[in-house]
Amino acid sequence: MFNIMSEQFLGYYIIFDNGISMIFVSHSGSLIRLEEKKTSSIKLKGTNKLLLEYLLRNGFGETIKKEDLLRHVWDENNLSSSSQRMWQVFKSLKSKIAILNCPADFIVYTKGVGYSIENVHVSKLWYNV
User: Fold this and answer.
1) Domains along the chain?
2) Fewer CB within 10 Å: N-end or C-end of the chain?
3) Local structure of residue 27 (DSSP, 8 states)
């Protein structure tokens, strides 16, 4: 009898240009900084989690317009969207990333264009079940 294994999506592996690496576990919202002797982590919830996941999935090598972020992160999740709310969540997300001593400037805003992920390498993580 053979066991049939299937792959399930886990999240994203992020390597910064300076060598720091993190894992973002999508279903739990855990953001884990990997270090040689220890790891540190935080848990992202709500809109912080939704925003980071959307950026990692769509913003690497692409610029995402503000209107698209509002629609996909807020409106499609039945959340109240506004430019002010988006700015607040970006500020909150960047401060949470900074808690892990990771550079939050990998989320880049280009005025009049939109947001993108830069100065990192992002890979999807899968596991077998």
Assistant:
1) 7-128 (1.10.10.10)
2) N
3) T
Q: How far apart are CA 75 and CA 37, in angstroms?
A: 41
| Helices 46-58, 83-99: crossing angle, 10 deg rounding | 90
In three-state secondary structure terms, 73 is helix
Sign of the CA dihedral running 22, 23, 29, 32: negative
Q: How far is CA 68 from the centre of its chain?
A: 16
- Cα–Cα dist 109/69, whole Å: 12
Handedness of CA 68, 104, 87, 42 (dihedral sign): positive
Q: pLDDT digit string (tens) for 82-107?
A: 999 999 999 999 999 999 988 888 89
Point out the residues of the chain with pLDDT beneath 50.
none
